Amino acid sequence: GPKVLQIPSHQIIDMGQMVTLNCDPVSNHLYFYWYKQILGQQMEFLVNFYNGKVMEKSKLFKDQFSVERPDGSYFTLKIQPTALEDSAVYFCASSLDDNYAEQFFGPGTRLTVL
Amino acid sequence: GQGVEQPDNLMSVEGTFARVNCTYSTSGFNGLSWYQQREGHAPVFLSYVVLDGLKDSGHFSTFLSRSNGYSYLLLTELQIKDSASYLCAVRWPNYNVLYFGSGTKLTVEP
User: Do residue A56 and residue B97 have CB atoms under 8 angstroms apart?
Assistant: First the structure.
């Protein structure tokens, strides 16, 4: 079936550094999402993105977070600067449109902030 | 988030069945999805329900009662490989945002 890819699978960085998480969504999908899952806890919505704009974001999407998809390349989540509480697995998802129920998820990027 | 609740763990026996329950806040409800997630892997979509009743998809069936804010995922003829976490996610009518429960870890024993 359609697959969402995420690069890298793991990332370890020092607190205060910048990190960029990359997502390659399903090719014909138009809506993109980031979710955050802290170990042992539920997956939580961060942000969704359509037509070059953030459509909805949660309170977890701090000012240090930004998303973009320049020229149809990777859909990225940038955190600058990082904090210890940003350590989590970040899942990217995509869907055909906002009326389509199925979101396809990537395998996640495990981010560890030291 | 948004009051989506699931039991943490569930155990069952190979060849029998398992029912994974999910309750949610009914305000603004616009559909509910079930995902399977194995450790270290992406959640995999199983089913989406928006109307009351039982939706039979073979190995997986899903039930919804909107007035009670309740859904379940029913797995029949369990196999060892069905051991995984099952996530309930409620969709509210704002750009297809999913609010997940904490997931139920199903263990299928021989």
Answer: yes
